[in-house]
Structure formats: structure tokens, C-alpha cells
Amino acid sequence: MAEMAYWEAIRRAHDEELANDPMVIAMGEDIGVAGGTYKATSGLYQKYGAARIIDTPISENSYTGIGIGASMAGMRPIIEIMSINFALLALDTLINAAAKIRYMSGGRASCPIVMRTPGGTAHQLAAQHSARLARMFMSTPGLRVVTPRNPLDAYGMLKSAVRCNDPVIIIEHESMYNMRGEVPDNEVFRPLEGAEIVRAGSDVTLIGYNYSVHLCLSAADKLSAMGVSAEVLDLRALRPIDRDTIRRSVEKTHNVVIAEEDEATVGVGAEIISVIVEECFFALDSQPVRVHAADVPVPYNRSLEKAAIPDVDDVVAAALKVVGRA
Amino acid sequence: MNSSDRKRLLREMIFFRRFEERSFEAYMERKIGGFLHLYSGQEAVATGVLEMARRGHDYVITGYRDHVHAMKCGAPAREVMAELYGKVTGSSRGRGGSMHIFDPSVHFMGGYALVGQPFPLAAGLALACKHKGTDQIAICFLGDGANNQGTFHETLNMASLWKLPVLFVCENNLYAIGTRIDRSSAVIDQYKRATAYNIPSSQHDGQDIDVVMAAAREAIDHVRSGAGPYFVEFMTYRQRGHSMSDSNAYRSKDEEREWLARDPITIYSERLKTEGVMSDDDIAEMEKAVLEEIETDVVRFAEESPEPRVEDLNQYCLEEPPDPRWIGPLVPGERHG
Ligand SMILES: Cc1ncc(C[n+]2csc(CCOP(=O)(O)OP(=O)(O)O)c2C)c(N)n1
Ligand SMILES: [Mg+2]
């Protein structure tokens, strides 16, 4: 069992999948000679060469489309988009093509691509570099959307995504690339579906995905010191959503907080609350609360940015509210 | 080309024309819905170019005006018609319709409704061919209007930079719906735009299938040799409206008459007659046989085929059944976590 950083886990998954199957390639801006903005492909250009680790021009829609086309003819491209903000330029090929090719061909064509991209706010990157957009992809049938929270999932879900025959969007986070965690030495595949109870508790369920799971875990520590037992649920996959695991947890704790770094409107929390209402409305003892970003473009100013983005204390306050302690 | 091949080519063009005109009728009878874009008038382009390609070997992709390209690749006409009817026996199992004909079994990789979207997909297919080291190429057919999309420029740049085996065929029919080319493109001759990306290119008459085939032969040889992409422009004209709701009010009747006089089927049948390959009677007989085949085989198959089952609505969204090795379910406690 080795401890490694999130970016190293992604790099290892690339390396193993590239070694395993000559049809696997990686494409993206600065991923080859430069080794990748987050080092997630560092050293691979030297090892696998320019034909498999492809440095692309700044042409997101078309290089993503090239990846999709190549996948239709048997290749397994791992497409990196430097930031989810730039994925907006590739929405045509991702949503109009990749998500629909299997369906509109009546199952006769498929495009097994992986698109990896960091979504989320980091430090004062301002409005055009702080998009989250998870909600946009999770609302698109024909895609799989996953949000690995730690090196193990970053590694094992990327490997599964490469093998899976559906288009998979992996949303990473700028603030997670240096997080460390254990990854087994042997090869591991982590499932692309299924929420996970990361910490068991009995008073309230804190639901997160991607970086917000870490807010929930820190909040659970603080709550524990206050005598509140919080269960933390990592959604792991935003599409499809694991309704059973959510239901079981809510039936156990009866109180729910959802932490999302996205804006709330038409968002992840809105969807989860709908699931809860549909699955187990009568198990609720209190109104669910969403902890979420303010409904504004993310500001540059440090204190404004902090005010716009949820933090651990916001999750603690919401949890105290739903258990009747505030 | 021997005379039996030339007769076959004429028959194919007559067949494609009749197929399109018959689907027009079926649309009027409301048996076909949605958008229907007909290829009448442009037959020499797809027929001629694909005659020079390797059927079932090279990859082909195009926009929404896709029936003829699919059939010339080898998609059975009855399945294409059944798709227009939305039947489960259709090329795309009734899920795609006129604009989304797919037949991967013959490497026809689809019709796409978003103008310009197939450019990168074609380059990707070519990338796969190059990667696998085969002598396959990818052929992308698109209209003149598509060249104004960003994907044109992005893709031509990458295709040239990476020397991808892709042939871009521009079917310049002078209009993007109702907008004439001189009102939408700063460069009228589309083939000149490819030179900005160091891609060899040329422009030809798209109404004379012999001219199309000669140009396609050169272009395809260039691409297959490994020298990188080629861009070929064919001047052509659609005889019907852009789609079914279009009255062509933006075009002059004189212009329409001029181009009708250059109908690709007329040009080719006149040539075969002059050269003594076929007589008027032969051609009349051929037309009759085509009509018959379309009614008794193609249309009948579409009419008699069943609809997809409503219970199967979700089918083909993702791979079924999901492979538990990659998909799950997540078993708590198992495999670390
Ligand atoms: C991205 C996008 N924008 C606009 C449209 C609407 N539209 C459909 S066809 C078309 C004109 C395309 O003209 P051209 O590329 O010359 O092809 P043609 O129809 O003449 O064969 C337009 C604007 C579309 N389908 N997709
Ligand atoms: Mg046009």
C-alpha cells in the first residue's frame, strides 16, 4: 500500500492503461512535453511517445471531437481539458455528439472516451476560471459523470472509465491534486456507479461529491466534538445517482445536509432533494438544507470569494440547524 | 471504367434520385416526420467520390443530408427508408431518423445535425486509421456553409499538422439554407480556404460524375499515400429546398433553370447514349426497374416493419448490460475504500 498524491494516482492510472492497451491515447493542451498542468501525465510523453501522448492546439471543441471520432473506430482516448471552464467550448461535441451517438445510432456505434477536467474554485482565479458545471453534465443522458474524492478513486475510476464503453466525464478539482491518500500496490478498478458511506453516523447525513466531501468530513469532526453524530456520504457518481444508498442513509439519520460547491439553482442538491422526496420523504424529520455557492459569478477579491463559496463552518451550521440545535 | 460499371453508376444515381423523391412523397403522406433534407441534384458528388473509395474499408461521415452517402457506402436502402419511417428495422433502429443514418458495419459513421460537427469526428476516424497503421482513410462530406464554423479551422489545422489521412469533400451548392455563399463567406472559392492550413485543394464541376471521379481518384490517392489531408470542392446544386419547409424563395428561377439543365443524371445518360453504351429504351427500362425495386422492396419493407417498442425507450443510452468490473455496484468493504 503506497501513499501518493491525487495527481500521482491519475498519472499511475494513465501509465497502466497506456501499457495495457495500445489503443489508449491521451490528448490535451500541454499534456505531453510539458507534462500536464497538474503533472497528471508527467513523464508519459517520454515513455509512450508523441503518437500516444498528443499535445493539442487550443481547440477544445475539435480535439475533443477528434477523440470522439477516434473512439468510434476503436481507440480509447483520455482527453484532458485544462479547466472545466474550457469544456464549455467542447459542449457541442460532448453533449450533441458523444452523449448521443450510441442512442441515435440505435446502439450500433459507441464512443468510449474519457474526458478529465478539474472543476471548482481554487484561489482567486475569478469568474472565468472558477466554474463548476457538474450540474450541466449530470443532466445529460448518455454520459457517465464521476467525481473522485481521493487518490484511490482518482486512480481506480480513471482505470474503469478507460475500460468502460460509455463516454465518461471525470470531474476533478484544482484543490485536490496535492491531496494524499493510500492506493494499493496491486491493480484496482473502482466502480463508476455507487455512492459510498465514508463515515458512519446516526444524527444527520452530510452529502457531498468531489471536494465538498472533504468539507463534510471536516464538519463531521467538529460536530462530533459538539455531540452530533454525522454520517458522510460521497455521491462518487453524479450520473447515474445511487438512490438506494441515499435512501438507506436518510432512513437511518432522518436529517440531511447537502454540500455543493456549485450554485444551488437547478443543481446537484436540488436533484438529491428530489431523490429523497421521491424515495423516502416520510423518513425526514427536518427540511433538508443545501450548503452551496452564492448565485453570482465567482468574484476575484479574496473575502468576496470566500463569501461566495461554502466552507466547513457553513456545513456545521446547516447540520446544527437540521438536528434542531440552532 | 468498363461499360457495365458505367451502367451500374447510372442506375445507382437514378436509384438515389428516386429514393429521395419517393421519400418526399412519403413525407407528404406524413409517413416520414421531422426534418428531411433531400440530395436530388447532387448525386454525382457522393456517388462519384465514394466510387473511388474502398467500400466498407474507408470511413465516411457527413451531415444531415445523408441518405445517399449511407447507401453508396453499402447501407441497405430498405433499412435507410425504414429509418426515415422511424421503424425498428431502420439503420438506427428508429432512434435516429433522416438526419442520423448510421451503418458502422460498412463504416458509414453517421449523419449529424450540427453544422460543422463532423469535421473533427472525421479527423478522429483518420487518427485511428493512422494509429492502427492501416491504409484506410476517412472521408468527410459537408456543405459550403459548414466551412464557416470554428471546427473547420481547428480541424484543418490539426489534420494538416498531424498529417491525418482524411479527405474533406466540400459540396458547394451555393446556399446555406437561404443564405447565398457570397453573403456568408469572405472567400467565395472554398478550396482556397484550405491553403491557409497547408492542405492541397482543388475545385471541380460536381455535376459530371466523370469529372468527380477523376478528381476524387487524385485526392484519395494523395490521402492514402500518407501525404496528409486533401480538400476537394465540388460545385453543385440542390434541386429541392433546403428541407421540406423551404420554398426556395431566395433563388431566382433563371438560376434554378440553369442548374436543372446540368442535372447529373441527364449529363451522364446523354454521355452513355452518345458513346453507344445505352439506348433510350435501355434507360427507360432501367428507370422502370428502379421504380419497381423501390416500391416492392424498399418502401414495402419500411411500411411493413414494426415500430420500436415504447418499453425500449431507454435502450441504447448506455452500454447494456453494464460491465460490473467497471460499473459496479459498489460493495461496501470490498476492494478497499
Ligand atoms: C451548429 C448549427 N447551426 C445552425 C444550424 C441550422 N442549419 C442547418 S443546415 C444549415 C445550412 C448549412 O449549409 P451547408 O453547410 O452549405 O449545407 P447544405 O444544407 O447546403 O447541404 C443551417 C444554418 C445547425 N443545424 N447547426
Ligand atoms: Mg450549402
How would you describe this protein?
The complex is a heterodimer of chains A (about 325) and B (about 325). Chain A has about 325 residues and is of the alpha/beta class. In chain A, about 40% of the residues lie in helices and about 20% in strands. In chain A, strands 3-2-4-5-7-6-12 form a seven-stranded mixed beta sheet, sandwiched between helices. A five-stranded mixed beta sheet of chain A has the order 9-11-10-13-14, with helices on both faces. A two-stranded antiparallel ribbon of chain A has the order 1-8. In chain A, β13, α10 (about 270-280) and β14 form a beta-alpha-beta unit. In chain A, α1 (about 5-20) packs parallel to α7 (about 150-165) and α3 (about 60-70) runs parallel beside α5 (about 90-105). Chain B has about 325 residues and is of the alpha/beta class. Chain B has a single domain, classed as 3-Layer(aba) Sandwich (Rossmann fold), CATH 3.40.50.970. Chain B has helices at about 5-30, 45-50, 65-75, 75-85, 120-130, 150-160, 190-195, 210-225, 255-260, 265-275, 280-305, 325, and strands at about 60, 110, 140-145, 165-170, 175, 180, 200-205, 230-235. Chain B starts with a helix and ends in a 10-residue tail after the last helix. Classes of the chains: A alpha/beta (about 325), B alpha/beta (about 325). Chains A and B meet through α3, α5 and α7 of A and α5, α6 and α12 of B. The structure holds thiamine diphosphate (TPP) and magnesium ion.
